[in-house]
Amino acid sequence: MSLAANLTALQLHVAFWDYNNDSIITPVEIYSGFRDLGFCIPFSLGGLLINIFFSYPTTLGHSWLPDPLFRIYTDSIHKAKHGSDTGVYSSDGNLRLMLFDEVFEKMDSSSAEVPTRISNTTRLEDDRGEPSLGVGDLFRLHAKNRVAADPAGWSFAAMEWWTTWLLLQRDGRLWKEDLRSIYDGTLFWRIREEREKNGQLHQGYGWQDWLGGLWNNGTWKTWEIRHKDRVKVKAEKEL
Q1: In which band, very low, low, confident or very high, does the pLDDT at 199 lie, cut at 50, 70 and 90?
Q2: φ, ψ for residue 76, nearest 5 deg
Q3: Of 46, 77, 221, 237, which is the most exposed, with the fewest CB atoms less than 10 Å away?
Q4: Is 38 left (phi over 0), alpha (psi -120 to 50) or beta?
Q5: Which phi and psi (to 5°) does residue 128 adopt?
Q6: What is the 3-state secondary structure (H, E, C) of the chain?
């Protein structure tokens, strides 16, 4: 991995998909990147929407004419920044850590849920106080950031959060340090290295989780079932 020190956070975020480091991301590279991250073939093909929607904005840094090959130019990736987002990336593509921290300060409901979760013996075992966002928090965040007359921004933001949750969720939540390394792109490299080494990633959510959860337990929230099983086993050992 060879990345220039002067790249913005947004350029680092997309650099994972630039396989030959030519500052251009082709549809094939988008597909290959999602496959390397563990996404299935249909989802990875759906990722080609990124080239369809974001190619022309980045092309404007070089030409008024659209790129017939739907390539994305990473040196002008900031031109593809859309509305109704968190604002964590500035208009130049730099990372605004104050706004990133603010997202968790305002949206993380886990601290308020702790008494209820403890009383119902559903507190997550690996919850060591690290800020995180649950599914409900993400819905509230998306609703808060929506601005008027911006259906494109609403849609892009929803797709981005959905993809991020599928890739990163642990115990049904997105954890702050994981999300921080998504913004600067370092997590993508780590996931690929871990999958190449171990053959799998011990987080995320796939269609097997969804189907298996509904079929075996009647719920898609498989992390809740796994946690209840852990609590049951622990209680039996203590008897």
Answers
A1: confident
A2: -125, 30
A3: 237
A4: left
A5: -105, 25
A6: CCCCCCCCHHHHHHHHHCCCCCCEECHHHHHHHHHHCCCCHHHHHHCCHHHHHHHHHHHCCCCCCCCCCCCEEHHHHHHHCCCCCCCCECCCCCECHHHHHHHHHHHCCHHHHHHHHHHCCCCCCCCCCCCEEEHHHHHHHHHHHCCCCCHHHHHHHHHHHHHHHHHHCECCEEEHHHHHHHHCCHHHHHHHHHHHHHCCCCCCCCHHHHHHHHHHHCCCCHHHHHHHHHHHHHHHHHC
Two structure tokens written together for 80: 């593809």
Where do we find the tokens 């904005």?
57
Q: What average pLDDT does this structure show over 156-160?
A: 97
Q: Which range (64-73, 81-90, 129-138) has the least confidence? A: 129-138
Let me know if 223 is exposed, middle or buried by CB neighbors in 10 A (0-12, 13-18, 19+).
middle
As a whole number, the mean pLDDT across the chain is: 85
Decide: 93 and 99 in contact? Cβ < 8 Å.
no
pLDDT of the residue at 222? 73
Pairing assessment for the beta strands 72-73 and 132-134 based on DSSP bridges: unpaired
Contact status, residue 108 vs residue 137, Cβ threshold 8 Å: yes
Q: Is 8:94 a contact under the CB 8 Å cutoff?
A: yes
**Cα(first)–Cα(last) distance of the chain, in Å?**
52
Please calculate the CA angle 83-81-10 and round it to the nearest 5 degrees: 135
Supply 98's token pair. Answer: 């104050």
Q: At what angle do helices 207-217 and 222-238 cross, to 10 degrees?
A: 60
